[in-house]
Amino acid sequence: MRFIIIGGDAAGMSAASRAKRNQPDLEVTVLEKTGDVSYSACGMPYNIAEPDRDIEDLVVRTAKIFREKQGIDLRTEHHVTAISPEAKTVQITGPDNKAFSLGYDKLLIATGASPIIPDLPGFDLPGVMALKTLADGRRIKQFLRDHQVKKVVIIGMGYIALEMCEALRGLDLEVAMVKPRPRFLPWMSERLASRVLEEIRAHGTDCLLGQPVQGIDRNGKQLKVLCEHADLDCQMVLSAIGITPNSRIARAAGLALGPQGSIAVDRTLLTSDPDIYSAGDCADAYHVVTKQKTWIPLALRANRAGWAVADNVTGQRVELQGVAGTAVFKVFDLQVARTGLSLAEAREQGFDPTEVVIETRSRAHAHPGSTPIHVQMVGDRKSGRLLGAQMVGLEGAAHRINAPAVALQAGMTVEAFAQCDLAYAPPFSPVWDPLLTAANQLMKKL
Ligand SMILES: Cc1cc2nc3c(=O)[nH]c(=O)nc-3n(C[C@H](O)[C@H](O)[C@H](O)COP(=O)(O)OP(=O)(O)OC[C@H]3O[C@@H](n4cnc5c(N)ncnc54)[C@H](O)[C@@H]3O)c2cc1C
After folding, report:
1. pLDDT of residue 299 exceeding 90
2. What spacing in Å lies between the alpha carbon of 197 and ligand 1's midpoint?
């Protein structure tokens, strides 16, 4: 049996490795359009922050190991241009630009996502970059090495933009951030979002909200980001306004699509075709709170979905429960974390939600080093269910978010969560953990 995988990063290589482990005689072919496989995209902002660190450090496993030690037929620089579900073939353009096709018994589409590049003048100029692939990371490092960059303008204020802001400030570069819409981190409770904004501004970054970008101009080595009310001079631009699923070949093959154009899959990761699976950033997923389809492109679910596909292709039956949208990132000294639904998302999904936003301490009363920690928690008035939580703090937010993430997966009520036996010792939390304090207060509003 031949199992073909399109895309050789998190989802694709997880599936390839596990399928070979499960069934060593399975013929596994991976077709990857770039020269890179299996690397940590998530580590790129931190690597860029260290000019002397080799970006190749981010490669988790090399193509040679996949080929020679794991027996995977891994073909880099092989671009899949089309899928023919009736013939069960994929059309490929190889490194020599020659087109050919390969037949499959089972196929996995793990093509990931691509950065959204606005259709505006100047986004193709040298010095205007996006950060998605390892090649992008290399390009950015090289550009910073080869040019006298003093100032960078970042368009967008999502988590990659914020991580890059910290990386570039760490290199002593001036940074200005700009976004068209007026709200900073719109999915976050306003009080928590303003704490994050304060942190960025305290580190010397200009943040211009509500400034539609109209294009980018170039004068010699100088770039100018043209906004509605201000022009921003710089030597490099990072465009970080979001990503879109790579579902073009799936759509052209007639496969059903899900939210935001992602490839629709069931709980076994099967698409609308009985022999084609999809996993990772290109595919949709079930949300454990709403039970509806959602598109939340993050690394753990890409790896986990890759494993599940491999198990299903090799004769087991694995179903994934779904995602809670648990995410965490660092902004200078702050930890920012979320899981589940925000108040607005809960309303949109038909819940009758209410929230609390509290500020408490990260450690026990009077314990040295204690810092403020903000918690927002959302519950449903009708069912009493916990719907989501967000946290911001200098310490204790990142891993603490895992407790409500587990509670969401288990479908717990706020009352049941408030009864959980969470850990306490003075250096780590107050006796009432910040999450328990939030849950106790939320119960009064339900
Ligand atoms: C800067 C950055 C920081 C991040 N930080 C985090 C983080 O902290 N936490 C987190 O959870 N997630 C993070 N992510 C997201 C995470 O990296 C992705 O969720 C994950 O890489 C998705 O894996 P994937 O295999 O689905 O897709 P990808 O990693 O995008 O891989 C898809 C592969 O398919 C190939 N491909 C596409 N089309 C074709 C085709 N037609 N033919 C052949 N090959 C094709 C692509 O070249 C690519 O190699 C970050 C991403 C970036 C860019």
Report:
1. yes
2. 27
